[in-house]
Every structure is written in structure tokens, then in C-alpha cells.
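User: Good morning. I'm curious how FE2/S2 (inorganic) cluster would be positioned relative to this chain. Could you predict the structure with it bound?
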Amino acid sequence: MSEFVKVARVGDIEAGTGKTVYLGGTPVALFNVDGEYFAIHNTCPHEDGPLGEGTLCGCVVTCPMHAYEFDVTSGECLTEPAYRVEQFEVQVDGDDILVRQSVD
Ligand code: FES
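Assistant: Good morning! Here's the predicted structure, ligand included:
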């Protein structure tokens, strides 16, 4: 089962940037790609860098620790294909940005 949880408001994240938000206890990197929002797990699978603090260029975020690149629309790592981060579904409801959370 899953449900959408509010994690931010439209306007909290400028286009071309990202932010770390929390979905329950899970850190999630939320990005604004030209007005469309994407969410991936915040923790880089290389050495746990915070992807929400990375630099976004188009739909690619660069990890602030060792510059591995991830496609925020898919969670794929462009630098090392063996790495991948979990992707979360995002919805915008009025001024609220919601991310889907799995519920047991
Ligand atoms: S921790 Fe992200 S590239 Fe190393």
C-alpha cells in the first residue's frame, strides 16, 4: 500500500535546483526540472553523499562528494551503471508537492 505525503510547497524549490526533504524518516532529494518535480532517494549509493545538495543541470544531478551523476527522472547513475537510487512518484496538488510513500 502507499500514500502521497506532503513534503514541500511549490515555490520552495526554484527551477533548476533541488532540496533534501523527509518522507517519514527517509531523506528524499526533490528537484525542480523546469517546473516539473522529481524525487529520488537522497543518499548516494557510492559513499552516502547527499544528492539533494548536488548541482542540477537539466535532469542530471551531480553528487557533491565525488561528482557521480544521476538522472533524477529515473534514479539511474550515469557514471557507474551498477549504482541506482530509488525513485519516488511525485504529485502536485494546488501549492503542495506530494511524494508517494510505501506503507506496510
Ligand atoms: S558519495 Fe556520491 S559520488 Fe561519492
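The chain has a mean pLDDT of 95. The radius of gyration is 13 Å.
Let me know if you'd like a different ligand tried.
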